[in-house]
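User: Just a sanity check before I run the rest of the batch. Below are the structure tokens for the first item. I only need the designed sequence back.
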């Protein structure tokens, strides 16, 4: 909630639910013919030395107030784009980007499109250990490299090998990729099996938090204080759990329906206290 204003006869409540400062987000230019880049967060401070963001272009950047901070192709310099002007929305949010570490020693070549053979060999690829910010689109990561400026793509996996890892410490969705399924463990020890319960079966979707080479799972969901078990991500070089989508923030007990119920109850109380008499 941003603010609550009592204007005598009406109670105005302002909510802020979309743009998250400090997080990389994916935007699409929604105004024609486009938007000029700015050197600073000042509409008059336009950078006329470079081409602006054109209608339909996809832009990755970080929200700073009413502006989007963007890394451009010109020596990786930072520029700014206004999110709106005179009430018109200029950039439409279409997805949230998160960080993925490159997990293959040979690195990954960028692609012009979501096609493995459409490599961009004019620029250096993503190197082993690099952390890449992008938005997941199916089995691909859409990114804007500083040396290119335009949208490029990285495959999340190839021939069953994970190229971009889901980052530890965040809630992820995984799918069991081994036909024999996986037994749950009481701890991060392969021998410490929990044979009192059914394991994760082939094709099952499991939500959990990566801890090294293990996935920590709450049996009753992360929004509760349920018992925790572990599943190995790999065994003898075989991938057992395949990451399905980009990471979500680790949920707390108030991140789900309960939080929305509490917010609704709070708004009702405010309306009763400050509403029309």
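Assistant: Here's the designed sequence for the first item:
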């Amino acid at each position: 909630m941003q603010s609550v204003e009592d204007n005598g006869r009406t109670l105005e409540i302002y909510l802020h639910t979309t743009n998250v400062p400090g997080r990389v987000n994916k935007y699409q230019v929604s105004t024609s013919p486009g938007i000029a880049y700015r050197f600073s967060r000042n509409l008059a401070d336009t950078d006329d030395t470079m081409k602006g963001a054109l209608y339909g272009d996809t832009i990755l950047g970080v929200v700073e107030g009413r502006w989007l901070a963007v890394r451009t192709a010109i020596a990786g310099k930072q520029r700014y784009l206004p999110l709106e002007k005179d009430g018109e929305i200029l950039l439409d949010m279409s997805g949230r980007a998160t960080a993925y570490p490159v997990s293959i020693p040979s690195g990954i070549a960028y692609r012009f499109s979501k096609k493995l053979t459409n490599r961009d060999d004019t620029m250096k690829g993503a190197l082993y250990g690099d952390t890449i910010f992008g938005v997941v689109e199916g089995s691909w990561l859409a990114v804007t490299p500083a040396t290119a400026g335009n949208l490029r793509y990285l495959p999340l996996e190839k021939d069953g090998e994970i190229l971009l890892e889901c980052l530890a410490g965040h809630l992820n969705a995984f799918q069991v990729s081994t036909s024999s399924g996986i037994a749950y463990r009481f701890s991060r020890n392969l021998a410490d099996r929990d044979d009192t319960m059914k394991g994760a079966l082939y094709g099952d979707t499991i939500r959990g938090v990566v801890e090294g080479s293990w996935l920590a799972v709450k049996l009753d969901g992360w929004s509760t204080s349920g018992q925790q078990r572990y599943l190995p991500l790999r065994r003898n070089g075989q991938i057992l759990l395949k990451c399905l989508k980009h990471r979500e923030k680790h949920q707390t007990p108030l991140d789900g329906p309960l939080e929305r119920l509490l917010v609704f109850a709070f708004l009702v109380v405010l309306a009763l206290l400050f509403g029309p008499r």
